[in-house]
Write a structure and sequence with these properties.
By secondary structure, this protein is α+β, with helices and mostly antiparallel strands. The chain has eight helices and nine strands. The longest helix is centred in the last third of the chain and has 12 residues.
């Protein structure tokens, strides 16, 4: 992901994906992450609870900023790359309420009842610097959260080592293109969504 992208829409999804799946990132404690990777199930250990909203991010750089490259605290000490099919990612997004900005698509009471919440936060580059456009965060809970955990996860990979190697590269002043070549920054592309999803995500809002 380049740190200078001219003419990037204010709200746009950028992600690493293939023909079948899109990758999102989540940060967890060792108690949750290690069993999840071993069993390929997020709820492999009872420490995982859906009583609170769990957040995912398609942006690798934003995940690095949010988790401090996995060093921020013990509850975010493992970074997981999780694959979900395009069809199920769309289903998830269609349940969303946008909780940032001033969109008028639904009332505050309606938003509170939603099991999926979207925040459009300032995007970051791999150094953690703010960029002039937004990055999507998606929080899930309730029945949608249960489907995410039990039915929609296609694969879980521990990418903590990649995150920590990236931190070393940032500290050493290595350029971003070289970081990409070293496999420390995934190649992210614009993730296109249809008009119905754009309306739900208020992607025309600034």
């Amino acid at each position: 992901m380049s740190s200078t992208k001219p003419n990037v829409p204010y709200r746009q999804i950028r992600a690493s994906y293939d023909d079948h799946t899109i990758t999102v990132y989540q940060a967890y404690s060792a108690a949750i992450a290690l069993p999840a990777v071993a069993d390929q199930k997020l709820n492999a250990d009872p420490a995982f609870k859906l009583t609170r909203m769990t957040w995912m991010k398609p942006s690798w750089a934003w995940m690095m900023y949010r988790s401090g490259y996995s060093f921020k605290d013990l509850n975010q000490s493992y970074i997981l790359a999780i694959k979900i099919t395009h069809a199920n990612f769309r289903r998830l997004l269609l349940h969303a309420a946008v909780t940032t900005g001033h969109g008028k698509s639904m009332s505050e009471e309606e938003k509170k009842r939603k099991e999926v919440r979207v925040q459009w936060d300032p995007e970051r580059n791999v150094k953690g610097e703010v960029l002039p456009y937004r990055s999507i965060q998606i929080g899930v809970s309730g029945e949608v959260g249960r489907k995410w955990v039990e039915e929609w996860v296609e694969g879980i990979e521990d990418v903590t080592g990649m995150a920590r190697a990236l931190k070393r590269a940032v500290d050493e002043g290595i350029g971003e293109e070289e970081m990409v070549e070293r496999g420390l920054v995934p190649r992210e592309r614009v993730y296109e969504v249809d008009e119905e999803v754009k309306r739900v995500l208020e992607m025309g809002e600034g």
